[in-house]
Write a structure and sequence with these properties.
This protein is of the alpha/beta class and about 350 residues long. The chain is about 30% helix and about 15% strand. Helix 2 packs across helix 10. Bound molecules: S-adenosylmethionine and iron/sulfur cluster.
Length: about 350
């Protein structure tokens, strides 16, 4: 075979390889990123003690949150870079009037197989069926207590029944499983494992305890109420709960199951050694900044590249090059919560 034919054959193989290769976001520490958490508003109608104890207050000059078209473009860029899962978060994402259209816009990308929302549950009962029709595949609802009065005290809203009806409505709408987030707090709910376990015995709910994280606004609360998820893990192990294997686009939870329970328990322990080694997620804030970590950086602006479909390639390049500056770990252990005043602006 002539040298020219071999060379042109090699060039063809390399072209085919490039087409077949699924693009992938990989950082300098060989971590792969399949999961985007996209915040679509900072606004919230709840006043959770650990997040927005004084309620949402716009800070600085008025901000406009990403428009539907900007959301469409940013999700397309991530989809073309190998993202398989997107979570819509906030503030309270369901407060956006165009929330159903946002769901449909993100699902225009066939690569995004999982589209989830994290919500306080306020609009679930009313809207969950239309979210499902628009393409929402998974739901996380925040419920820190199963006691209506305590729920009110934590969230500032007397909406426990409404949120519970919302979870029922999600099952009626066809979701086979719902995830529920509870922020673990000493002397608030850390001794309530028993009632949470009763609740999930015959319900396909994955109840996830999230360790309270220290934020710029929440240092006092953190000192008073932080407790390690280890207290829950020990009880689960004693009661025969088994840890499950983690999938590549799964979130950070350690998930436990038990043959006698339909539900599962998840533990999210950001202070545990090696938590960052399994990091597979990136974040975009409601004003279009790419955040490489939940904590400790300003974010890389993407918004100037979200104005027009023709900027897609530049946008992808900025995301990829920004990722190369991602650090190996957060610095929460040293009490450094960086610039994150509270988690409502970046979505937890
Ligand atoms: N408003 C929605 C909700 O509450 O589900 C979505 C946004 S909220 C910021 C996302 C998640 O972050 C919620 O599950 C919330 O409980 C959690 N979160 C907020 N502040 C936190 C903190 N300081 N420590 C741990 N989790 C926190
Ligand atoms: Fe709102 Fe969610 Fe923060 Fe609670 S945790 S104040 S519901 S953004």
């Amino acid at each position: 075979m002539s040298a020219t034919r071999v060379q042109s054959g090699n060039a063809r193989i390399s072209r085919i390889w490039k087409v077949l290769q699924v693009p992938q976001l990989i950082d300098a520490f060989e971590r792969k990123f399949y999961y985007l958490r996209l915040s679509i508003t900072d606004v919230c109608n709840f006043r959770c003690t650990y997040c927005l104890p004084d309620g949402y207050k716009p800070s600085g000059s008025p901000k406009t949150f990403l428009s539907l078209d900007e959301i469409r473009r940013v999700s397309r860029a991530f989809a073309e870079l190998g993202t398989e899962k997107v979570r819509l978060t906030g503030g309270e994402p369901s407060l956006r009037r165009d929330f159903t259209e946002i769901i449909a816009a993100v699902r225009e990308n066939p690569a995004i197989r999982t589209l989830a929302v994290t919500t306080n549950g306020y609009r679930l009962a009313r809207d969950v069926a239309s979210w499902r029709d628009a393409g929402l595949t998974a739901i996380n609802v925040s419920v820190d207590s199963l006691d209506a009065r305590q729920f009110h005290a934590i969230t500032g809203q007397d909406k426990f029944r409404q949120v519970m009806e919302g979870i029922d409505a999600a099952f009626t709408a066809g979701y086979s499983k719902v995830k529920v987030n509870a922020v673990l707090m000493r002397d608030v709910n850390h001794q309530q494992l028993g009632s949470f376990l009763n609740w999930i015995k015959d319900r396909p709910i994955q109840l996830r305890f999230i360790e309270l994280m220290e934020t710029g606004d929440g240092s006092d609360l953190f000192r008073k109420h932080h407790v390690s998820g280890e207290v829950i893990r020990l009880q689960l192990e004693q009661q025969g709960w088994q840890r499950q294997v983690r999938g590549r686009s799964d979130g950070p939870a350690q998930v436990f199951s038990h043959p006698d329970y339909q539900g599962e328990i998840g533990l999210i322990m950001p202070y545990e050694k090696d938590f960052c080694a399994s990091c597979n997620r990136l974040r975009v804030s409601a004003i279009g900044n790419l955040h490489l970590c939940l904590f400790g950086e300003q974010g890389i602006t993407l918004r100037d590249l979200l104005a027009d479909d023709g900027q897609l390639e530049q946008l992808k390049m900025r995301i990829q090059s920004g990722l190369q500056t991602k650090k190996q770990t957060h610095f929460l252990h040293q009490g450094n919560s960086g610039l994150t005043q509270n988690l409502s602006f970046i979505g937890g």
